Protein backbone atom coordinates (compact mmCIF):
# COMPACT_ATOMS: atom_id res chain seq x y z
CA UNK A 1 0.00 0.00 0.00
CA UNK A 2 1.29 3.50 -0.89
CA UNK A 3 2.18 5.53 2.18
CA UNK A 4 -0.04 8.55 2.86
CA UNK A 5 0.90 11.89 4.38
CA UNK A 6 -1.33 14.27 6.34
CA UNK A 7 -1.01 17.56 8.19
CA UNK A 8 -3.46 18.47 10.95
CA UNK A 9 -4.02 21.87 12.52
CA UNK A 10 -4.76 23.02 16.04
CA UNK A 11 -7.16 25.95 15.86
CA UNK A 12 -9.02 28.02 18.45
CA UNK A 13 -9.00 31.12 20.61
CA UNK A 14 -5.83 32.52 22.16
CA UNK A 15 -4.75 30.87 25.43
CA UNK A 16 -7.08 27.87 25.04
CA UNK A 17 -4.12 25.53 25.25
CA UNK A 18 -3.36 24.66 21.62
CA UNK A 19 0.43 24.80 22.01
CA UNK A 20 0.33 22.82 25.28
CA UNK A 21 -1.91 20.24 23.64
CA UNK A 22 0.46 19.97 20.66
CA UNK A 23 3.36 19.43 23.07
CA UNK A 24 1.38 16.79 24.99
CA UNK A 25 0.62 14.94 21.77
CA UNK A 26 4.08 15.22 20.16
CA UNK A 27 6.58 16.02 22.96
CA UNK A 28 7.63 19.05 20.87
CA UNK A 29 7.36 22.65 22.06
CA UNK A 30 6.26 24.58 18.97
CA UNK A 31 6.77 27.99 20.60
CA UNK A 32 10.26 28.60 19.21
CA UNK A 33 10.51 32.40 19.26
CA UNK A 34 11.72 34.28 22.34
CA UNK A 35 8.77 36.66 22.02
CA UNK A 36 6.39 33.69 22.00
CA UNK A 37 7.95 32.31 25.19
CA UNK A 38 7.72 35.66 26.95
CA UNK A 39 4.15 36.45 25.91
CA UNK A 40 2.97 32.81 26.02
CA UNK A 41 1.19 33.11 22.66
CA UNK A 42 1.99 31.67 19.25
CA UNK A 43 3.03 34.25 16.69
CA UNK A 44 4.49 32.01 13.99
CA UNK A 45 3.24 28.66 12.78
CA UNK A 46 4.59 25.83 14.91
CA UNK A 47 5.17 22.34 13.53
CA UNK A 48 5.73 18.92 15.04
CA UNK A 49 5.60 15.24 13.99
CA UNK A 50 2.64 13.44 15.57
CA UNK A 51 2.68 9.86 14.32
CA UNK A 52 4.22 7.59 11.69
CA UNK A 53 3.91 3.95 10.72
CA UNK A 54 4.27 2.06 7.43
CA UNK A 55 0.87 3.27 6.25
CA UNK A 56 0.63 6.89 7.37
CA UNK A 57 2.61 9.93 8.52
CA UNK A 58 0.95 12.79 10.42
CA UNK A 59 2.31 16.27 11.23
CA UNK A 60 0.76 18.96 13.42
CA UNK A 61 0.53 22.72 12.88
CA UNK A 62 -0.12 24.83 15.95
CA UNK A 63 -2.05 27.76 14.43
CA UNK A 64 -1.81 31.17 16.16
CA UNK A 65 -5.10 32.18 17.77
CA UNK A 66 -4.62 35.89 18.43
CA UNK A 67 -6.52 38.21 16.08
CA UNK A 68 -3.32 40.07 15.14
CA UNK A 69 -1.85 36.86 13.81
CA UNK A 70 -4.80 35.89 11.60
CA UNK A 71 -2.58 35.96 8.54
CA UNK A 72 -0.37 33.19 9.90
CA UNK A 73 -3.45 31.25 10.95
CA UNK A 74 -4.83 31.35 7.39
CA UNK A 75 -1.44 30.32 5.97
CA UNK A 76 -1.41 27.32 8.29
CA UNK A 77 -4.99 26.16 7.85
CA UNK A 78 -4.79 26.43 4.05
CA UNK A 79 -2.51 23.39 3.95
CA UNK A 80 -4.16 21.02 6.42
CA UNK A 81 -6.29 17.90 6.09
CA UNK A 82 -7.97 17.80 9.51
CA UNK A 83 -8.54 20.41 12.22
CA UNK A 84 -8.64 19.90 15.97
CA UNK A 85 -10.71 22.77 17.37
CA UNK A 86 -9.46 23.49 20.87
CA UNK A 87 -11.97 25.06 23.29
CA UNK A 88 -10.99 25.71 26.90
CA UNK A 89 -13.42 24.16 29.41
CA UNK A 90 -13.23 27.23 31.66
CA UNK A 91 -14.10 29.75 28.88
CA UNK A 92 -16.07 28.01 26.14
CA UNK A 93 -16.50 29.40 22.62
CA UNK A 94 -14.85 32.84 22.20
CA UNK A 95 -14.77 35.44 19.37
CA UNK A 96 -11.61 34.04 17.80
CA UNK A 97 -13.10 30.54 17.92
CA UNK A 98 -15.99 31.78 15.79
CA UNK A 99 -13.67 33.54 13.34
CA UNK A 100 -11.56 30.39 13.05
CA UNK A 101 -14.73 28.40 12.33
CA UNK A 102 -15.65 30.80 9.52
CA UNK A 103 -12.16 30.59 8.03
CA UNK A 104 -12.15 26.78 8.21
CA UNK A 105 -15.50 26.71 6.41
CA UNK A 106 -14.34 29.06 3.65
CA UNK A 107 -11.09 27.12 3.18
CA UNK A 108 -13.07 23.96 2.62
CA UNK A 109 -11.65 21.96 5.52
CA UNK A 110 -14.03 19.01 5.72
CA UNK A 111 -12.75 16.98 8.69
CA UNK A 112 -12.74 18.16 12.27
CA UNK A 113 -12.50 17.01 15.88
CA UNK A 114 -13.20 18.98 19.05
CA UNK A 115 -10.84 18.93 22.01
CA UNK A 116 -12.22 20.47 25.22
CA UNK A 117 -9.02 21.46 27.00
CA UNK A 118 -8.09 22.39 30.58
CA UNK A 119 -10.74 20.06 32.03
CA UNK A 120 -8.91 19.87 35.38
CA UNK A 121 -9.82 23.52 35.97
CA UNK A 122 -13.59 22.91 36.15
CA UNK A 123 -15.97 20.34 37.55
CA UNK A 124 -17.92 17.77 35.49
CA UNK A 125 -21.17 19.70 35.72
CA UNK A 126 -19.55 22.78 34.22
CA UNK A 127 -18.00 20.66 31.41
CA UNK A 128 -21.51 19.51 30.44
CA UNK A 129 -22.63 23.15 30.21
CA UNK A 130 -19.59 23.97 28.05
CA UNK A 131 -20.40 20.98 25.80
CA UNK A 132 -23.94 22.25 25.24
CA UNK A 133 -22.60 25.73 24.47
CA UNK A 134 -20.10 24.30 21.95
CA UNK A 135 -22.71 22.09 20.27
CA UNK A 136 -24.92 25.13 19.71
CA UNK A 137 -22.08 27.22 18.30
CA UNK A 138 -20.91 24.44 15.97
CA UNK A 139 -24.24 24.01 14.18
CA UNK A 140 -23.78 24.44 10.43
CA UNK A 141 -19.98 24.22 10.67
CA UNK A 142 -17.57 21.44 9.70
CA UNK A 143 -17.60 20.48 13.39
CA UNK A 144 -21.32 19.84 13.63
CA UNK A 145 -21.55 16.22 14.73
CA UNK A 146 -17.78 15.96 15.20
CA UNK A 147 -16.53 13.75 18.04
CA UNK A 148 -15.55 15.42 21.35
CA UNK A 149 -12.53 14.49 23.44
CA UNK A 150 -11.94 15.85 26.95
CA UNK A 151 -8.26 16.57 27.53
CA UNK A 152 -5.87 18.15 29.97
CA UNK A 153 -2.35 18.77 28.69
CA UNK A 154 -0.71 18.93 32.14
CA UNK A 155 -2.19 15.74 33.59
CA UNK A 156 -2.23 14.06 30.12
CA UNK A 157 -5.88 13.08 30.56
CA UNK A 158 -7.49 12.16 27.21
CA UNK A 159 -4.26 12.72 25.25
CA UNK A 160 -3.90 9.13 24.03
CA UNK A 161 -7.63 8.99 23.25
CA UNK A 162 -7.33 12.15 21.11
CA UNK A 163 -4.22 10.86 19.37
CA UNK A 164 -5.90 7.52 18.55
CA UNK A 165 -8.97 9.35 17.22
CA UNK A 166 -6.80 11.54 14.93
CA UNK A 167 -4.97 8.50 13.55
CA UNK A 168 -8.17 6.47 13.04
CA UNK A 169 -9.91 9.39 11.30
CA UNK A 170 -7.02 10.08 8.92
CA UNK A 171 -6.57 6.41 8.04
CA UNK A 172 -10.07 6.57 6.56
CA UNK A 173 -9.36 9.79 4.65
CA UNK A 174 -8.10 10.26 1.10
CA UNK A 175 -4.74 11.98 0.89
CA UNK A 176 -3.97 15.02 -1.23
CA UNK A 177 -3.11 14.58 -4.90
CA UNK A 178 0.45 13.25 -5.07
CA UNK A 179 0.22 12.61 -8.81
CA UNK A 180 -0.12 16.19 -10.05
CA UNK A 181 2.64 18.73 -10.50
CA UNK A 182 4.50 19.63 -7.31
CA UNK A 183 3.36 22.79 -5.50
CA UNK A 184 4.51 24.12 -2.16
CA UNK A 185 3.32 27.57 -0.96
CA UNK A 186 6.21 28.93 1.10
CA UNK A 187 5.39 30.04 4.66
CA UNK A 188 8.93 30.36 6.04
CA UNK A 189 12.26 31.44 4.50
CA UNK A 190 15.52 31.28 6.43
CA UNK A 191 19.21 30.48 6.06
CA UNK A 192 21.25 27.70 7.64
CA UNK A 193 24.96 28.33 8.13
CA UNK A 194 26.95 26.39 5.58
CA UNK A 195 23.81 25.33 3.70
CA UNK A 196 22.27 28.54 2.38
CA UNK A 197 18.60 29.28 1.70
CA UNK A 198 15.89 27.04 3.13
CA UNK A 199 12.13 27.30 2.52
CA UNK A 200 9.42 25.52 4.46
CA UNK A 201 5.78 24.76 3.80
CA UNK A 202 3.15 22.08 3.37
CA UNK A 203 3.24 20.27 0.04
CA UNK A 204 -0.16 21.06 -1.50
CA UNK A 205 0.08 18.54 -4.30
CA UNK A 206 2.54 16.39 -6.18
CA UNK A 207 5.94 15.33 -4.90
CA UNK A 208 9.51 16.61 -5.00
CA UNK A 209 12.83 14.80 -4.91
CA UNK A 210 16.39 15.73 -4.08
CA UNK A 211 18.26 17.28 -7.01
CA UNK A 212 15.07 18.27 -8.86
CA UNK A 213 15.00 21.58 -10.77
CA UNK A 214 12.14 23.81 -9.54
CA UNK A 215 10.82 27.32 -10.02
CA UNK A 216 9.95 30.06 -7.55
CA UNK A 217 6.73 31.71 -8.68
CA UNK A 218 5.44 34.25 -9.53
CA UNK A 219 8.99 35.54 -10.22
CA UNK A 220 9.98 32.50 -12.30
CA UNK A 221 13.39 32.03 -10.60
CA UNK A 222 14.95 28.65 -11.36
CA UNK A 223 16.35 26.76 -8.36
CA UNK A 224 17.41 23.26 -7.42
CA UNK A 225 16.30 21.18 -4.43
CA UNK A 226 19.71 20.52 -2.88
CA UNK A 227 18.37 18.76 0.23
CA UNK A 228 14.93 17.83 1.56
CA UNK A 229 14.01 17.45 5.22
CA UNK A 230 10.81 16.25 6.86
CA UNK A 231 10.76 17.02 10.61
CA UNK A 232 14.53 17.58 10.76
CA UNK A 233 15.27 14.24 9.09
CA UNK A 234 16.81 14.10 5.64
CA UNK A 235 14.54 12.60 2.97
CA UNK A 236 15.06 11.73 -0.68
CA UNK A 237 11.51 12.75 -1.50
CA UNK A 238 8.57 14.71 -0.04
CA UNK A 239 4.90 14.14 -0.86
CA UNK A 240 1.58 15.99 -0.85
CA UNK A 241 0.41 16.54 2.74
CA UNK A 242 3.91 16.59 4.26
CA UNK A 243 5.49 19.48 6.13
CA UNK A 244 8.77 19.94 4.29
CA UNK A 245 11.92 22.04 4.46
CA UNK A 246 13.87 22.32 1.22
CA UNK A 247 17.42 23.63 0.94
CA UNK A 248 17.58 25.53 -2.37
CA UNK A 249 20.58 26.36 -4.51
CA UNK A 250 20.55 29.20 -7.02
CA UNK A 251 18.72 31.73 -4.87
CA UNK A 252 19.35 33.90 -1.81
CA UNK A 253 17.06 34.47 1.18
CA UNK A 254 16.57 38.08 0.08
CA UNK A 255 15.04 36.93 -3.22
CA UNK A 256 12.25 35.04 -1.46
CA UNK A 257 9.37 35.77 0.88
CA UNK A 258 6.40 34.06 2.44
CA UNK A 259 3.71 33.80 -0.20
CA UNK A 260 6.03 32.72 -3.00
CA UNK A 261 5.27 29.29 -4.40
CA UNK A 262 7.74 26.53 -5.23
CA UNK A 263 6.61 24.48 -8.24
CA UNK A 264 7.97 21.81 -10.57
CA UNK A 265 5.94 22.70 -13.64
CA UNK A 266 5.20 25.50 -16.08
CA UNK A 267 1.54 24.47 -15.97
CA UNK A 268 0.51 26.77 -13.13
CA UNK A 269 -0.99 30.14 -14.00
CA UNK A 270 0.35 33.46 -12.76
CA UNK A 271 -2.44 36.02 -12.76
CA UNK A 272 -3.81 39.21 -11.24
CA UNK A 273 -7.44 38.80 -12.36
CA UNK A 274 -9.36 35.88 -10.87
CA UNK A 275 -12.98 34.76 -11.32
CA UNK A 276 -14.26 33.46 -7.98
CA UNK A 277 -17.26 32.14 -6.07
CA UNK A 278 -17.52 33.59 -2.54
CA UNK A 279 -19.66 33.37 0.57
CA UNK A 280 -19.71 36.04 3.29
CA UNK A 281 -19.71 35.66 7.06
CA UNK A 282 -23.11 35.72 8.74
CA UNK A 283 -22.41 38.66 11.05
CA UNK A 284 -20.72 41.01 8.59
CA UNK A 285 -20.33 44.34 10.37
CA UNK A 286 -19.70 46.65 7.41
CA UNK A 287 -21.12 46.92 3.90
CA UNK A 288 -18.99 45.44 1.10
CA UNK A 289 -19.13 47.87 -1.82
CA UNK A 290 -18.35 47.55 -5.53
CA UNK A 291 -14.58 47.79 -6.23
CA UNK A 292 -13.84 48.09 -2.53
CA UNK A 293 -10.23 47.34 -1.48
CA UNK A 294 -9.81 43.82 -0.08
CA UNK A 295 -6.96 41.72 1.26
CA UNK A 296 -6.77 38.27 -0.31
CA UNK A 297 -5.25 35.35 1.60
CA UNK A 298 -4.64 32.38 -0.69
CA UNK A 299 -2.23 29.64 0.27
CA UNK A 300 0.49 31.54 2.09
CA UNK A 301 0.08 34.63 -0.11
CA UNK A 302 -1.39 37.90 1.10
CA UNK A 303 -2.12 40.51 -1.56
CA UNK A 304 -4.22 43.66 -1.89
CA UNK A 305 -6.84 44.08 -4.59
CA UNK A 306 -10.41 45.07 -5.33
CA UNK A 307 -13.62 43.08 -5.49
CA UNK A 308 -15.72 43.48 -8.64
CA UNK A 309 -19.39 42.47 -8.70
CA UNK A 310 -21.41 41.93 -11.88
CA UNK A 311 -24.93 41.71 -10.42
CA UNK A 312 -24.87 44.20 -7.53
CA UNK A 313 -23.08 47.28 -6.22
CA UNK A 314 -23.01 46.45 -2.54
CA UNK A 315 -23.29 43.49 -0.20
CA UNK A 316 -24.31 43.23 3.44
CA UNK A 317 -26.10 39.94 3.98
CA UNK A 318 -26.13 36.99 1.61
CA UNK A 319 -26.55 33.30 2.39
CA UNK A 320 -25.79 31.98 -1.09
CA UNK A 321 -22.70 31.89 -3.26
CA UNK A 322 -21.78 35.10 -5.09
CA UNK A 323 -19.98 34.98 -8.44
CA UNK A 324 -17.59 37.88 -8.83
CA UNK A 325 -14.00 38.81 -9.64
CA UNK A 326 -10.87 39.82 -7.75
CA UNK A 327 -8.50 42.28 -9.43
CA UNK A 328 -5.19 42.19 -7.60
CA UNK A 329 -2.33 44.64 -7.25
CA UNK A 330 0.27 41.88 -7.62
CA UNK A 331 0.37 38.63 -9.56
CA UNK A 332 -0.25 35.38 -7.74
CA UNK A 333 0.04 31.71 -8.66
CA UNK A 334 -3.24 29.84 -8.41
CA UNK A 335 -5.45 27.25 -10.10
CA UNK A 336 -9.12 26.35 -10.29
CA UNK A 337 -10.44 25.02 -7.00
CA UNK A 338 -7.95 26.85 -4.76
CA UNK A 339 -9.58 28.14 -1.55
CA UNK A 340 -9.06 31.63 -0.15
CA UNK A 341 -10.12 34.13 2.53
CA UNK A 342 -11.11 37.78 1.94
CA UNK A 343 -10.53 40.36 4.64
CA UNK A 344 -11.23 44.05 4.88
CA UNK A 345 -7.95 45.96 5.33
CA UNK A 346 -9.50 48.69 7.46
CA UNK A 347 -11.32 48.26 9.74
CA UNK A 348 -9.91 44.72 9.84
CA UNK A 349 -12.63 42.13 9.41
CA UNK A 350 -13.04 38.76 7.72
CA UNK A 351 -15.51 39.38 4.88
CA UNK A 352 -15.77 35.82 3.64
CA UNK A 353 -14.03 33.35 1.42
CA UNK A 354 -14.50 30.97 -1.43
CA UNK A 355 -12.80 29.21 -4.29
CA UNK A 356 -11.21 30.03 -7.65
CA UNK A 357 -13.47 29.32 -10.63
CA UNK A 358 -11.03 30.54 -13.28
CA UNK A 359 -7.57 32.00 -12.65
CA UNK A 360 -7.59 33.55 -16.13
CA UNK A 361 -10.28 36.17 -15.55
CA UNK A 362 -11.08 38.74 -18.24
CA UNK A 363 -12.89 42.06 -18.12
CA UNK A 364 -16.64 41.49 -18.34
CA UNK A 365 -19.70 43.69 -18.64
CA UNK A 366 -21.96 44.27 -15.67
CA UNK A 367 -25.14 42.22 -15.97
CA UNK A 368 -26.84 38.83 -15.92
CA UNK A 369 -25.08 37.59 -19.06
CA UNK A 370 -21.73 37.66 -17.25
CA UNK A 371 -23.23 35.88 -14.23
CA UNK A 372 -24.62 33.19 -16.54
CA UNK A 373 -21.19 32.71 -18.15
CA UNK A 374 -19.50 32.48 -14.73
CA UNK A 375 -22.16 29.98 -13.65
CA UNK A 376 -21.31 27.80 -16.65
CA UNK A 377 -17.62 27.97 -15.75
CA UNK A 378 -18.39 27.12 -12.15
CA UNK A 379 -20.50 24.00 -12.68
CA UNK A 380 -18.71 22.67 -15.76
CA UNK A 381 -17.76 18.99 -15.72
CA UNK A 382 -14.13 18.10 -16.58
CA UNK A 383 -15.15 17.32 -20.17
CA UNK A 384 -17.04 20.61 -20.47
CA UNK A 385 -14.05 22.52 -19.12
CA UNK A 386 -11.68 20.78 -21.56
CA UNK A 387 -14.08 21.43 -24.44
CA UNK A 388 -14.52 25.11 -23.49
CA UNK A 389 -10.75 25.65 -23.15
CA UNK A 390 -9.99 24.08 -26.54
CA UNK A 391 -12.91 25.83 -28.22
CA UNK A 392 -11.59 29.19 -27.03
CA UNK A 393 -7.96 28.54 -28.04
CA UNK A 394 -8.78 26.20 -31.01
CA UNK A 395 -5.87 23.92 -30.12
CA UNK A 396 -3.85 23.32 -26.94
CA UNK A 397 -0.99 21.15 -25.78
CA UNK A 398 -1.42 18.95 -22.72
CA UNK A 399 0.57 21.43 -20.64
CA UNK A 400 -1.63 24.32 -21.75
CA UNK A 401 -4.74 22.28 -20.95
CA UNK A 402 -3.45 21.57 -17.45
CA UNK A 403 -3.08 25.33 -16.94
CA UNK A 404 -6.46 26.29 -18.36
CA UNK A 405 -8.60 23.56 -16.81
CA UNK A 406 -6.81 22.98 -13.48
CA UNK A 407 -7.16 19.24 -14.13
CA UNK A 408 -4.23 16.92 -13.48
CA UNK A 409 -2.47 15.11 -16.31
CA UNK A 410 -3.96 11.72 -15.55
CA UNK A 411 -7.57 13.02 -15.53
CA UNK A 412 -6.98 15.01 -18.71
CA UNK A 413 -5.56 12.05 -20.60
CA UNK A 414 -8.53 9.93 -19.58
CA UNK A 415 -11.04 12.44 -20.98
CA UNK A 416 -8.95 13.27 -24.06
CA UNK A 417 -9.33 9.67 -25.23
CA UNK A 418 -12.96 10.54 -26.05
CA UNK A 419 -13.77 10.66 -29.79
CA UNK A 420 -14.75 14.32 -29.45
CA UNK A 421 -11.07 15.24 -29.07
CA UNK A 422 -8.32 14.85 -31.68
CA UNK A 423 -4.56 14.76 -31.10
CA UNK A 424 -2.52 16.05 -34.04
CA UNK A 425 1.15 16.80 -34.63
CA UNK A 426 1.76 14.38 -31.79
CA UNK A 427 1.31 17.15 -29.20
CA UNK A 428 -1.71 19.39 -29.85
CA UNK A 429 -5.35 18.67 -29.04
CA UNK A 430 -8.36 20.06 -30.85
CA UNK A 431 -12.06 19.27 -31.15
CA UNK A 432 -13.52 17.02 -33.82
CA UNK A 433 -16.29 19.58 -34.28
CA UNK A 434 -13.67 22.28 -34.96
CA UNK A 435 -11.98 20.10 -37.59
CA UNK A 436 -15.35 19.53 -39.28
CA UNK A 437 -16.15 23.24 -39.09
CA UNK A 438 -12.78 24.28 -40.55
CA UNK A 439 -13.09 21.65 -43.30
CA UNK A 440 -16.51 23.06 -44.20
CA UNK A 441 -15.08 26.61 -44.28
CA UNK A 442 -12.23 25.50 -46.55
CA UNK A 443 -14.68 23.60 -48.77
CA UNK A 444 -16.89 26.70 -49.14
CA UNK A 445 -13.85 28.93 -49.78
CA UNK A 446 -12.53 26.60 -52.50
CA UNK A 447 -15.94 26.17 -54.08
CA UNK A 448 -16.35 29.94 -54.32
CA UNK A 449 -12.81 30.29 -55.65
CA UNK A 450 -13.40 27.63 -58.34
CA UNK A 451 -16.53 29.43 -59.50
CA UNK A 452 -14.70 32.75 -59.78
CA UNK A 453 -11.40 31.34 -61.09
CA UNK A 454 -12.44 28.25 -63.00
CA UNK A 455 -9.23 28.11 -65.06
CA UNK A 456 -6.89 27.99 -62.03
CA UNK A 457 -5.71 24.67 -60.62
CA UNK A 458 -6.81 25.77 -57.20
CA UNK A 459 -6.14 28.29 -54.45
CA UNK A 460 -2.56 28.83 -53.38
CA UNK A 461 -2.21 27.11 -49.98
CA UNK A 462 -0.42 30.11 -48.43
CA UNK A 463 -3.29 32.35 -49.55
CA UNK A 464 -5.85 29.90 -48.18
CA UNK A 465 -4.08 29.76 -44.80
CA UNK A 466 -3.69 33.52 -44.63
CA UNK A 467 -7.43 34.03 -45.00
CA UNK A 468 -8.13 31.80 -41.95
CA UNK A 469 -5.11 32.33 -39.69
CA UNK A 470 -6.77 35.12 -37.72
CA UNK A 471 -9.29 32.56 -36.43
CA UNK A 472 -7.25 29.34 -36.25
CA UNK A 473 -3.61 28.36 -35.58
CA UNK A 474 -1.58 27.56 -38.74
CA UNK A 475 -0.70 24.11 -37.38
CA UNK A 476 -4.40 23.24 -37.09
CA UNK A 477 -5.21 24.54 -40.59
CA UNK A 478 -2.30 22.52 -42.02
CA UNK A 479 -3.64 19.43 -40.28
CA UNK A 480 -7.20 19.93 -41.57
CA UNK A 481 -5.96 20.38 -45.15
CA UNK A 482 -3.76 17.26 -44.98
CA UNK A 483 -6.58 15.35 -43.33
CA UNK A 484 -8.97 16.51 -46.07
CA UNK A 485 -6.53 15.37 -48.75
CA UNK A 486 -6.23 11.98 -47.04
CA UNK A 487 -10.01 11.50 -46.85
CA UNK A 488 -10.57 12.61 -50.45
CA UNK A 489 -12.28 15.95 -49.77
CA UNK A 490 -9.39 18.08 -51.12
CA UNK A 491 -6.69 17.65 -53.74
CA UNK A 492 -3.30 19.30 -54.05
CA UNK A 493 -1.14 19.99 -57.07
CA UNK A 494 2.10 21.64 -56.00
CA UNK A 495 1.20 24.64 -53.88
CA UNK A 496 -2.42 24.69 -55.10
CA UNK A 497 -5.34 23.21 -53.13
CA UNK A 498 -8.63 22.34 -54.81
CA UNK A 499 -11.77 20.29 -54.30
CA UNK A 500 -11.20 16.71 -55.43
CA UNK A 501 -14.00 16.73 -57.99
CA UNK A 502 -12.96 20.06 -59.51
CA UNK A 503 -11.64 20.10 -63.09
CA UNK A 504 -10.18 23.39 -64.33
CA UNK A 505 -12.10 24.72 -67.36
CA UNK A 506 -12.59 27.79 -69.50
CA UNK A 507 -15.70 29.78 -68.54
CA UNK A 508 -18.62 28.68 -70.70
CA UNK A 509 -19.04 32.13 -72.26
CA UNK A 510 -15.46 32.01 -73.64
CA UNK A 511 -15.18 28.37 -74.61
CA UNK A 512 -16.04 28.81 -78.33
CA UNK A 513 -13.58 31.64 -78.87
CA UNK A 514 -10.85 29.69 -77.06
CA UNK A 515 -11.46 26.64 -79.30
CA UNK A 516 -11.23 28.84 -82.40
CA UNK A 517 -7.98 30.37 -81.15
CA UNK A 518 -6.45 26.94 -80.49
CA UNK A 519 -7.46 25.77 -83.97
CA UNK A 520 -5.73 28.81 -85.48
CA UNK A 521 -2.54 28.15 -83.50
CA UNK A 522 -2.60 24.47 -84.55
CA UNK A 523 -3.19 25.35 -88.20
CA UNK A 524 -0.10 27.60 -88.21
CA UNK A 525 2.05 24.65 -87.12
CA UNK A 526 5.65 25.52 -86.25
CA UNK A 527 5.56 28.95 -87.84
CA UNK A 528 3.17 30.69 -85.51
CA UNK A 529 2.42 34.37 -85.20
CA UNK A 530 2.92 36.36 -82.02
CA UNK A 531 0.90 34.66 -79.28
CA UNK A 532 -0.83 37.91 -78.30
CA UNK A 533 -2.20 38.32 -81.79
CA UNK A 534 -4.23 35.13 -81.50
CA UNK A 535 -5.96 36.51 -78.40
CA UNK A 536 -6.72 39.81 -80.11
CA UNK A 537 -7.98 38.15 -83.29
CA UNK A 538 -10.25 35.81 -81.27
CA UNK A 539 -11.81 38.72 -79.34
CA UNK A 540 -10.56 37.54 -75.94
CA UNK A 541 -10.23 40.57 -73.60
CA UNK A 542 -6.98 41.58 -71.90
CA UNK A 543 -8.56 40.95 -68.46
CA UNK A 544 -8.91 37.25 -69.30
CA UNK A 545 -5.64 36.78 -71.16
CA UNK A 546 -3.25 36.10 -68.24
CA UNK A 547 -5.51 33.45 -66.65
CA UNK A 548 -6.23 31.82 -70.02
CA UNK A 549 -2.51 31.69 -70.94
CA UNK A 550 -1.76 29.96 -67.62
CA UNK A 551 -4.69 27.56 -68.00
CA UNK A 552 -3.80 26.55 -71.57
CA UNK A 553 -0.19 25.85 -70.58
CA UNK A 554 -1.12 23.97 -67.35
CA UNK A 555 -3.53 21.80 -69.32
CA UNK A 556 -0.84 21.37 -72.07
CA UNK A 557 -3.11 22.72 -74.82
CA UNK A 558 -0.20 25.01 -75.72
CA UNK A 559 3.52 25.07 -75.00
CA UNK A 560 5.08 28.48 -74.41
CA UNK A 561 8.39 28.83 -76.20
CA UNK A 562 8.90 32.24 -74.64
CA UNK A 563 6.82 35.34 -73.94
CA UNK A 564 6.25 35.93 -77.66
CA UNK A 565 5.57 32.51 -79.16
CA UNK A 566 3.59 29.41 -78.26
CA UNK A 567 2.94 26.13 -80.09
CA UNK A 568 -0.16 24.06 -79.98
CA UNK A 569 0.46 21.09 -77.68
CA UNK A 570 -0.06 18.50 -80.45
CA UNK A 571 2.26 20.41 -82.85
CA UNK A 572 4.99 20.62 -80.19
CA UNK A 573 4.76 16.88 -79.44
CA UNK A 574 4.93 15.97 -83.15
CA UNK A 575 7.94 18.28 -83.65
CA UNK A 576 9.79 16.65 -80.74
CA UNK A 577 9.13 13.15 -82.16
CA UNK A 578 10.21 14.23 -85.68
CA UNK A 579 13.45 15.68 -84.32
CA UNK A 580 14.15 12.61 -82.16
CA UNK A 581 13.58 10.29 -85.14
CA UNK A 582 15.83 12.36 -87.40
CA UNK A 583 18.82 12.50 -85.03
CA UNK A 584 20.97 10.14 -83.05
CA UNK A 585 21.81 10.42 -79.35
CA UNK A 586 23.02 13.96 -79.93
CA UNK A 587 22.57 16.76 -82.43
CA UNK A 588 23.57 20.32 -83.25
CA UNK A 589 21.40 23.38 -83.99
CA UNK A 590 22.05 22.98 -87.72
CA UNK A 591 20.68 19.44 -87.70
CA UNK A 592 17.50 20.61 -85.98
CA UNK A 593 16.97 23.54 -88.38
CA UNK A 594 17.33 21.21 -91.31
CA UNK A 595 14.89 18.60 -89.95
CA UNK A 596 12.20 21.03 -88.76
CA UNK A 597 12.77 23.73 -91.37
CA UNK A 598 12.73 26.50 -88.77
CA UNK A 599 14.34 29.92 -88.73
CA UNK A 600 16.51 31.00 -85.82
CA UNK A 601 13.69 33.05 -84.15
CA UNK A 602 11.74 29.80 -83.56
CA UNK A 603 14.62 27.36 -83.38
CA UNK A 604 16.49 28.80 -80.39
CA UNK A 605 13.41 29.13 -78.07
CA UNK A 606 12.23 25.66 -79.19
CA UNK A 607 15.56 24.04 -78.23
CA UNK A 608 15.68 25.96 -74.92
CA UNK A 609 12.17 24.65 -74.16
CA UNK A 610 13.45 21.10 -74.78
CA UNK A 611 16.22 21.80 -72.23
CA UNK A 612 13.84 23.28 -69.65
CA UNK A 613 11.49 20.30 -69.97
CA UNK A 614 14.40 17.94 -69.42
CA UNK A 615 14.05 16.34 -72.87
CA UNK A 616 17.57 17.41 -73.87
CA UNK A 617 20.71 18.63 -72.21
CA UNK A 618 23.07 21.15 -73.78
CA UNK A 619 26.69 20.04 -73.81
CA UNK A 620 28.92 22.74 -75.40
CA UNK A 621 27.53 23.19 -78.95
CA UNK A 622 25.48 20.01 -78.95
CA UNK A 623 22.33 18.70 -77.34
CA UNK A 624 22.07 15.24 -75.91
CA UNK A 625 18.69 13.46 -75.62
CA UNK A 626 17.82 12.54 -72.04
Automatic annotation (TrEMBL):
Keyword Protein biosynthesis tagged: yes
GO molecular function, one term: translation elongation factor activity
Residues of the Tr-type G domain: 3-174
Domain of life, per lineage: Bacteria
Coiled-coil residue spans: none
Main localization, broad class: cytoplasm
Gene3D superfamilies (alphabetical): 1.10.10.2770, P-loop containing nucleotide triphosphate hydrolases (3.40.50.300), Translation factors (2.40.30.10), Winged helix-like DNA-binding domain superfamily/Winged helix DNA-binding domain (1.10.10.10)
Record flagged with keyword Acetylation: no
Localization annotation: Cytoplasm
Pfam families found in the cross-reference section: Beta-barrel_SelB, GTP_EFTU, GTP_EFTU_D2, WHD_2nd_SelB, WHD_3rd_SelB
TM regions (residue ranges): none
Keywords recorded for this protein, A-Z: Cytoplasm, Elongation factor, GTP-binding, Nucleotide-binding, Protein biosynthesis
Function description: Translation factor necessary for the incorporation of selenocysteine into proteins. It probably replaces EF-Tu for the insertion of selenocysteine directed by the UGA codon. SelB binds GTP and GDP.
UniProt protein name: Selenocysteine-specific elongation factor
Annotated organism of origin: Neobacillus driksii
Lineage, opening ranks: Bacteria, Bacillati, Bacillota, Bacilli, Bacillales
Gene: selB
Amino acid sequence: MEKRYFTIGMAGHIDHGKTSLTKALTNVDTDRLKEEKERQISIELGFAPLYEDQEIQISVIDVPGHERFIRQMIAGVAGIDLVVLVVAADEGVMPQTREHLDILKFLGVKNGLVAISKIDRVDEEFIELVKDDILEELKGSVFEGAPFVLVDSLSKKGIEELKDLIITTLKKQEMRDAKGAFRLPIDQVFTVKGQGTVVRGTVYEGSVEEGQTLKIMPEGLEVKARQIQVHHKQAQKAYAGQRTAINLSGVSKEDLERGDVLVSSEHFIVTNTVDVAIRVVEDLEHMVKQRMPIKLHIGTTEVMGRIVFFDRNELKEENGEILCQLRLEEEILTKRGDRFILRRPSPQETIGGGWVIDPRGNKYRFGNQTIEELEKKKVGSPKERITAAIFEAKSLTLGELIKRTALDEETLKEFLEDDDFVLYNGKEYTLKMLINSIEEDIYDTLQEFHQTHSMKLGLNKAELLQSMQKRFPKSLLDFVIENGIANGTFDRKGQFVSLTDFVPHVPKSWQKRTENMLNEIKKDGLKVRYYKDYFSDSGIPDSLEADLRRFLEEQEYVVHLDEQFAYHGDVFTEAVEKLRMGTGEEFEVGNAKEILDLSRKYMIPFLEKLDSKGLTKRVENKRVWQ
